[in-house]
Amino acid sequence: MATITPIHQAHPAPDAANSQMAPQKSPQRPRDPRLDFYRGIAMFIILIAHVPNNRWTGWIPARFGFSDATEIFVFCSGMASAIAFGGSFARKGWWLGTARVAFRCWQVFWAHIGLFFFIAMSLAAIDVYGGFEKSYIASLNLAPFFNDPAPQLVGLFTLTYVPNYFDILPMYLVVLALMPVMMGLEKISLWAVAAFSVLVWLVANPYLIGLGPNGLSLPAEPWSEREWFFNPFGWQLLFFTGFAFMKGWLPKPPVSAALIVLAAAFLILSMPFGSWKVFNWVKAANEDLAALIRPTWDWTAQWREKTDFGLLRYMHFLALAYLGWVIAGEGGKNLMARGQSVGAKVWSFFLGIITKVGQQSLAVFVFSMALARLIGFALDQTDRAITTVAFANLVGFVLIIGCAYGAAWFKSQPWRQKK
């Protein structure tokens, strides 16, 4: 699914004529189209998944296997972090690399806070001024915040109050904060990096080593024992797998017919074991086979758990990622349009859009999470017919595309560019 070319900096030796000149900048490493393409795809799926009662959610990856778009987002974020931050550690050393990670954590933290207050305000405005029978505040279980805001404000800013729906960015923040630890362990050995990541994941998944009911986790509500829906200590394994591939700590997998068949077989055969949709298809076709499969859902519940990132989710995503990487081709060559045919031009157009969305994933993600609730509210005022839902989703796509291009424009700081 993504590149595994190691990060490196070119250091050409200056010739005699240029030896007294100012040192030249290393050539900028081009972005790998595979990373942005697959991350862009994940952004569209995430929007669909978060629109309440959306018909289209019946056809997202989560309905056909153990893993879903969250895995794509986290894995690709790890790869992007290797590019964005791994080079800083290599060029500027551990302290300045850590400072850059801390600055990114600061940005993600305030994105989380801003997202929460915007959505809370939007739902409050609908409840106060809309006069609807349904409580939209209650739809996200935000009543405790509005009923007793003082302690929840403290919890919100200390990340001890993390309501469902607002849990991805806190997970990402904590995983980012682990990066300096990994870069410090790299100086010892790559085996130390791998051992630490696997050990933390094992402790977060207590069913594997028999440590208590919840293992290493973080509290999500002061009044209950609910943990963060996305346990960062479990999900860091996937993040740093993507990081390791992009950083060159892990070698690229071989393109092998045997591996392709094995990965595809695992994805297909595991469907009824991880998807109620596919299981019901099997049950309709052969009830005896379904009766054999059904007990495994109880046996594998923890192995496919989303909160702690169960082992089956990891295996499923790696198989999917391998096929995505093979399909894209070396350097993403298979994604590139060839020729001047109408089909090639159309594909090039859509590829550019998807890639742009992937490049601006944080801005798009925050925007889409807020947008999804507003789309859901709009759909509540309709009969949710097939055409209406399709129109709402497509409008959402257009808006997140606009967000991506707008974010890119602001980041380019055109007001500072010389004419």
From TrEMBL:
Key words of the record: Membrane, Transmembrane, Transmembrane helix
Biased composition (Polar residues): 17-27
Region span, Disordered: 1-31
Claim: Nucleus is one of the keywords in the record: no
One of the Pfam families matching this protein, by short name: OpgC_C
Transmembrane segments: 35-52, 72-90, 110-132, 152-178, 190-209, 257-276, 311-328, 385-410
Keyword Ligase set for record: no
UniProt-listed InterPro entries: UCP028704_OpgC
Name of the protein this chain belongs to: OpgC domain-containing protein
Organism the protein comes from: Tritonibacter litoralis
